[in-house]
Each structure stands twice: as C-alpha cells, then as structure tokens.
Amino acid sequence: MSLVPRRLLVLALLAPLLVQAAPAPWYYWRSLVDGQRVCAQTSPGPGWEQDSAAYEGPGCQPRRKVLIVPMR
Signal sequence span per UniProt (predicted)? Predict the structure, then answer.
C-alpha cells in the first residue's frame, strides 16, 4: 500500500470526528490581582480564575432562543 492511499484512508476515518467539532464555550474570568472581569474562551493567563458557568453564545451572551410557529 503506497503512502497516498494510506493518507486518504486516515483522512476518511478522521472526517467524522472533524464534523462533530463545536466552538469552545465562553466564560467570565476574574483577575486575582484587582478583581477585573474579562469574557474569553480560554484563560487570559496566570493570575486569572474562571468566574462563571459556560455561555454557548459568543461574547458571554446566552444563546438566542428561536420560536418556531407552525403555519396552518
């Protein structure tokens, strides 16, 4: 088996994992130095602690609720 078919086989096996990827949730982070809060997907660095539960919407906003009204 040559190198190209092996790569295609590996890509075909990994494709379902890539399709299921989702964006990282957003959190509020609090500075241990001055208590300032920042919204980010990952920790701003040392000296910060997670200060909220995960938000699914961007920028620490809750996900929009969409109402679907069936037509009659």
Answer: 1-21
